[in-house]
Amino acid sequence: MSRAIERADLVEVAAGVFAYVQPDGSWMINNTGVVLGEPNRPLLVDTTSTETRNRALLSAVAEVAPGRPYALVNTHHHGDHTFGNWLLEAGTPILAHEHCREDLLAAGLVAARLLPGPDYGRQEIRPPDVTFAGPMTLHLGDRPVQLIPVGPAHTRGDVVVRLPEDGVVFAGDIAFAGGQPFLVEGSVAGYLRALEELRALDAEVLVPGHGPVCRGAEVGRLLDDLEGYARFVDAVARDGHAAGNPPLEAARAVADDPYRDWQEAERLVGNLYRAYSELDGDPPGSRLDLGAVWEDMTAFHGGPIRCFA
User: Whole-model pTM above 0.90?
Assistant: First the structure.
C-alpha cells in the first residue's frame, strides 16, 4: 500500500526564521529549522531522514541563505533528525547535548533497519563535534539563540532551541502535533517536566518535531494535549504494572482510548515499556531492548509498521 507524499514547505515564522515542514509528520518525516543571522549564513536546526529529503532541505535553505551554514544543532539523536548531518561541509560545526552524541554513535543506522521501506540513499553517521551539558547561547550577529537541554524526555539528550527576541521555539520531538509522543528512549516523568519547561518559554510560535506549526493559543492547546497523553500513559502503566500485565497486554486493554486517532498509536506500547522500566526503579533513559519493544509495537499495530519517508 502506498500513498502520495505531500510537498515540504519552508515557512517563514518570524523575520528571518523558517520552519521546514514535512507533511504528514509520520515515522521519519520530521520538521527542521533555519535561522538567519550573519548575512547569507544560516543556523540549521536538525536534518532529516533520507538522502533525497536531505538534499531537498539543503536546496530549500540555499534559496533563502546561499552561504555555508554557520552551524547545525541536533535536537536529539534519532535518525530522522540526524541522518543528513554528513551532507554538511566538514568545516560546519554540529552542536548537540553530550548524550545526543553518545546515543547517536550507539544507535548507528538502527532507525533504517527498524523502519525499512524508504530509499534512504547513501547513509553515513556524522556525530556532533561540539557538545554541552547545560544551557548554551549562540549569537548570530544581534540575534541570540538559546539551546536549552530538557531531557531525558523523548530521549536522554533532548534540546529545544529558543529565539527569545522572536518568540519562536523549535521543540524537536518534545512536541508532536497530531502524533503520539515516543518516550521509549527517554522518560515519562521527564517528559512531563520537559513540557512544563517548554510551557514556561511562552512561545508565540512553536515548531514541533513532527506536524504543523502552532501559533498563539494553539501552543497551549498542544502542550495541554501532550500533557494529558503523558498522564494517561503513566496511569495505564501504574495499573498494568501493579496487576503484573506486560506492556503489550496493558496497551491492548485500553486500545479504545481517547488518543487512538493520533498517528502512530503503536507508540503507546513503547511508552509503557519505558514507564514500566521507571516503575521498576531503572534510571530515566536507561537502555531497553529496542528489538523486543518493536516486536510488541508491531503486534499491537497488527502488522509491519509502515514508513513513507
Answer: yes
pLDDT tens digits along 152-210: 999 999 999 999 999 999 999 999 999 999 999 999 999 999 999 999 999 999 999 99
Asked whether 75 and 209 are in contact (CB, 8 A), the reply is yes
Residues in the chain: 309
pLDDT score recorded for residue 56: 98
